[in-house]
Amino acid sequence: MLLHFFETLNYSHVFLWVYTRVKRSLSFSLSLVSLLKGVIVTFIIISKRERSALLLWLCEDSDFDEEEEEEEEEEEMVLKAATSLLQALGNAARRAIPFFVSDDDDDAKIIDGKRIAADIRAEIKGEVERLKAKTGKVPGLAVVIVGERKDSQTYVRMKRKACDEVGIHSFHSELPETISEKELIDVVKGYNDNPDCHGILVQLPLPKHIDEEKVLGVISLEKDVDGFHPLNIGMLAMKGHEPLFMPCTPKGSIVLLERSGVELKGKNAVVVGRSNIVGMPASMMLNKKDCTVTVVHSRTKNPKEICRRADVVIAAAGSAKMIKGDWIKKGAAVIDVGTNSVEDKSKKSGYALVGDVDFNEAKKRASFITPVPGGVGPMTIAMLLQNCLDGGKRAIEGTK
Ligand code: GUN
Question: Same structural domain for residues 158 and 227?
Fold first, then answer.
């Protein structure tokens, strides 16, 4: 019987066995690197005083037997630094765990956007604290909303709450639907001139009587945290140029791929959709990452055939479950930007959010996939905070 077993083994079995072992040990090494990175990053972002206190404490320096008050202050700092490090260790361990437990080679790894966004927000919070300790200043974001669209109001509330949580100061202008284009432009110009404001976000869409392009074009290039200014988009497109800011949703999609360890250089990437907010900038970002990019849109003749050749798919078409399992190449990485609300009687609200990708079908073919909700969504706000921090640092510290 044993002989029969060896007779039935062929090269493909051996190759598959070796491949699986190599893949697992690579995942193991990546996990260790991830853990180490988490600790080093935190050690860098905690304040200088906390770091020295922690080092002193670790080295059991006898400075602690000085005045009682000083001792208490130092102990507090050690505690703060140790808490930050433990938190980072926890985050890094959680990031590493999927590599250890994922034993299912058939289904895609689910990219947890919620967790990655939380890690990024924690990193930003640390940086804001460092900036405040060094300069006494924090980044400021102005959020401008026109009219009473419920979805826009919800997004704006979420953005302001996220700012509060990481210590970014937020300014707020809630303007009536009837405001004139000139009055809105004057509000934007006021924030352009305010030195405590380092980012301006005009929530879209604007009412029909206002020319969006004109308003976005007025935002100072250095405060364009949405990355929608024509000059920032132009610099994103051009070789040898870098924009000051990149649009948040596509930037978040790329960060999800990178933080999941997906190699982009030389890969075939397909972007489904060509909107100014997601599809168009996503295609340019992938191009900058050395992908060969194809954009599929509503007039494309053979979208399925084109998608099937893609190693990386970014779906931003705004059409529920349009991308089926047989559109996906085996082993592709799939980022689903779609948030479509569809009727679902099993839910209390009567509807459910679904992406542009048929998740249950696609996960059987992809190697990585984002869920909806919980994939790209949380990254948009994390990237907005990152852009505010970058803008704030440039203005306050004069960094590049
Ligand atoms: N409306 C929908 N998405 C966005 C966005 O990313 N930025 C702004 N300003 N408005 C939006």
Answer: yes
Task: Return the active site residues.
Answer: 159, 203, 226
The structural domain count of the chain equals 3
Ligand 1 center from residue 398 Cα (angstroms): 28
- What DSSP designation does 105 have? S
Cross-strand partners of 353 = 341
Helix, coil or strand: residue 146: strand
Closest ligand 1 atom, CA of 249? Answer: 6
Rounded Cα distance, 168 and 161, in Å: 10
Q: Judge whether 173 lies within some domain.
A: yes
Q: What are 249-306's pLDDT values in tens digits?
A: 999 999 999 999 999 999 999 999 999 999 999 999 999 999 999 999 999 999 999 9
Q: Which of 143, 204, 218, 278, when mutated, tests ligand 1's pocket best, judged by the most ligand atoms within 8 Å of its CB?
A: 204
355 contacts 339 by C-beta, under 8 angstroms? yes
The reported pTM is: 0.76
CA pair distance 371, 103, nearest whole angstrom: 19
295 contacts 281 by C-beta, under 8 angstroms = no
